[in-house]
Amino acid sequence: MVLKVFFPSCCSSADSGILIGRWISEQNSAVILAVVHFPFIPVQVKQYLGEVQRVTKVSVSVLGSWSNSKQEKEESLSEFLEDLGTIFCHEPWIQISKEGDSKFWSCSTLQKHSKNPQEEEIILVYYDQHKVMLSHLHPPLDTAGQRAEDASKLSAIFDTVARSRVLFMTDRYDEGPIKLTHWQSDGVEASIIVELMKQASVPACMLLTFLLSLLSGICRSRVLKFWPLSFLWSKLSTCEQLGHRLQHLQIISSNKKAQNQNQLMRKANIFVSLLIDVALGILLMSWLYRKNRIGHLADTLIPVADHVAEELQDLLQWLMGAPAGLKMNRALDQVLGRFFLYHIHLWISYIHLLSPFIEMILWYVGLSACLGLTVALCILSDIIALLTFHIYCFYVYGARLYCLKIYGLSSLWRLFRGKKWNVLRQRVDSCSYDLDQLFIGTLLFTILLFLLPTTALYYLVFTLLRLLVVIVQGLIHLLVDMIDSLPLYSLILRLCRSYRLAAGVKFRVLEQQDGKPLRLLMQINPLSYGGVVQTYRLPTYSCYPRDSWASLCKKLFLGELIYPWKHKGEKQN
User: Fold this and answer.
1) 138 confidence band (pLDDT: 50, 70, 90)
2) Cβ neighbours of residue 571 under 8 Å, at least 6 residues apart?
3) Taking the domains of the chain in order of start, what are their residue ranges?
């Protein structure tokens, strides 16, 4: 059989002692975690390992001996190391010895309690203990067959080192009876700034949790369930984004400790996303309030709205004539044209009525950028929806009229074929009609058929205008979704410390010598940027349903409405 010994590269220069780690019998592997130096008392070592095992829930034990002879190897030390196997009683007892500065070590096993000891081939695998402890192994997306089995074997190694964090908290400056060598035995890594932030974060999180619970209680109150407020809360994208950010604040201010690596990364991604969002919002707010840019924007808004209204009037005048040489139904064309022109007149009056207050409204709206760039973008989307409300009304009128004629023609077409729609069974059944019904159906079918081109032209024009507004709002919400869902912390971590996000490992064969064990160097393969986004992408609340092209074309042909908002409960992951 093949025995795999995972040895930390930081312990290659450690003084002689005993090897402590975890024995994984299923894989016939030994994961070395630290070296205990001479002198030591075996009872104290066993007590220390028992405390570590109780805290970490990892079966840590003494696996063998380590001999680092700076000079020629002494016979008494070799015999003493062999006798340690009878004290700690581990099968097999691993003996690793290094002579001087040689790169090629001797490695052997002892099986004193075995009746039929077998000579095992040993593979010595060096690994970076610091990187393995801080990294999180991500299993492959295709977890089938051999790849899933290999991932589980590797995850056992990573999990053993990560859960033994308590073992690495002791350094050589501690006055305890046991001296260890591991990746931070020269001094425990710490930062005064990080420790101060940890101490200050506890009262800050408690205060933020109280404020958020108070705010969420107000949001869940019955006041918001009445008709006007509930309608606005469900239709305005600003309210949806504020509710989404409120949930994010509740997650990161929660006192509950993260149970696993994914929850910890999710909290970190949300925190960094909020920081960047607020920072971009403050930059936008500082740009708006410089050089009276809000006043210039308010002065530009009214002429732009008047220009759009004039272009719509010219378009309706063109439709009321002979558009593109098409012959329309004169009476219906005049009625629809005057109806829409009257709505434009009402819209212009509405805009000029609000013109004295637009600058003040924009001034207060600009303050909302301190809540984040996404909130400001959602407010911009709602402002576009309000400024183009007349286009939405035109689209609704045209779509309803066109839909009425399409369904009327389809029903009358079934009448010609002697069929009808069975509402109870939801199917088309045969039916016999008398002469009067067929005559009236023929007249109605002829009228609707000749009026259809005029209605279809108005519907087509206003649908194109509506789609233009929806595309603009969709681009804004696409940017909001990107800021909300991108795992920025994970991407920064992948850029700066790629070993923290491990997709797997690769083994590099080192220089070999006859009679010495095979030496391998385990290196971490980082997760790709696409894998980082796919793994840690945050859930979003999109304001547009994900319709396929076939579904969208079907809606346009049948005259069904395209809503610019999300219905409640449609959560996009």
Assistant:
1) low
2) 539, 541
3) 3-181
